[in-house]
Amino acid sequence: MTYISGHDRSQILLLPEAVDDYVGPDNPVRFIDAFVAGLDLVVASFTHVEPKATGRPGYAPADLLKLYIYGYLNRVRSSRRLEAETHRNIEVIWLLRHVKPDFKTIADFRRDNRTAFRQVFREFVLLCRQLDLFGRELLAMDGTRIKAVNNKDRNFTRASLTQFIKTADAKLEDYLQRLDKSDATESATGGSRVKNLAEKIAAAQRHADGVGPDGGEPDLAHRPRQPSDGSAYACCGGYNVQIAVDAKHKLIVEQQVTNQVVDMGLLAQTAEPAKEVLGVERIAVVADRGYFKIEDIEACEKAGIDPYVPRPQRGPSVRAGRFRKDEFNYDLASDSFLCPAGQRLHPYSSSLMRAA
Question: What is the CATH number of domain 138-145+227-308?
Answer without folding.
Answer: 3.30.420.10
